[in-house]
Each structure stands twice: as structure tokens, then as C-alpha cells.
Amino acid sequence: MQARPDADEAELLAQSQRGDVSAFNELVLRYQSSVYNVALRMLGDADLAADITQETFLSAFRHLSTFRGGTAFRSWLLRITTNLVYDHWRRQRRHPEESLETASEEDDPQPSLTLAQLASSELEANPEQYLLHRELQELLQRGLAELPPEQRLALILCDIEGLSYEEIATVMHTMLGTVRSRIARGRARLRAYLARHQELLPRQFRSS
Questions:
Q1: What architecture is domain 100-205?
Q2: Are the beta carbons of 103 and 186 closer than 8 angstroms?
Q3: pLDDT by residue (tens digit) across 174-205?
Q4: In CATH, what is the architecture of 9-92?
């Protein structure tokens, strides 16, 4: 079953809020990949990410009556996902939230396409290329795991999922300036990490 690209999201939401499970399943099909990818990149555990994805949509369906349309539905979903990730960390007593007082307000002067390119899920048919792709994804995940959680989330939402700064501010429940600084600092840290492992990067991403 595939989501209908011509189905109007507002109508699907209205039907879902009236209890139409079929309409809600259409929304699940549209956004389950994005929800799963964010959970996976944040947690680095495929099984746990699948659990978080399921919990996200169950929670969304239970609380759908509270969604008023003031924000994008995707942003609302990813906020639920993020809250569930942080709930998991709190239960594990891991990753305390970064203090906002330490965040720089300097913006990254150039948008970064590198992370999106490195994180591409397109696989090569050649077995050797497939292996290299897997190794690259493992390296990228290790680099993301070294970032403070808030910077990691901001980078995932911006450079991998393609959300706007405004959408990220909604998901992270913070100000635009804080979003910009988290992205800038996260990109700088990730670039430094990847620079220390240049031999594992595809040639086009290595420094001259």
C-alpha cells in the first residue's frame, strides 16, 4: 500500500480526527520514513528507532484532537518523536540537555549539503560499493553520536530531513537564533570529526 500523492493532507487530517483509521494510515505512510530516520539518527539503534516510530504514531492518533493546524503536521509528529527519544534517554539517565547559555549565536555562513549527500540512502548495485556505503553510514552515525543531543537533532532535521529553520524551531520548541547556533556548532563539530577520518570518506568529500 502506498500513500496517494494527490490526497489532500488537510482532508486526511480532518477524517483522521473523526476517527477514520484508513485516513490516518495514509498519513503514516507519508511520514513514517521521516519519523524513523530521525529516531534512528538520534539513537543509532534500528530496533529502538522502530519502537519509537510505532509509539510516535500511536501517540499522534490518541492526541490527534489536540492538533489545531497552527504548525505543519510533520513538525508536530517529529516533536512527538523527539519527546519520546528524550524520554528514553531520561529513563537511561543519558544525555542531559545542553545549556542554552553556552550556545553561540554565530550562524554558519554557508549552507551544508555535505551531510545530506553523505547520509543518502541510495545504494549501489555493486557489492563493493554497497559495503563502502555501509561503512560510510557507520562513520557518519559515530560522528553524529559525538555531538550534544540538541546539535545532533538540529543537524538531522536541517541537513538530512530538510526542515526549515522555522520548522526546526517548532520541533525543538526554541527560538530561531538558538536553532541557527546549534546547526552552526553541530556542523563545525561534525566537519572536524570527519576531517579526522578522511581516509574513510569518498574522494569528493576529502580535503585537498
A1: Orthogonal Bundle (1.10)
A2: no
A3: 999 999 999 999 999 988 888 887 766 655 55
A4: Orthogonal Bundle (1.10)
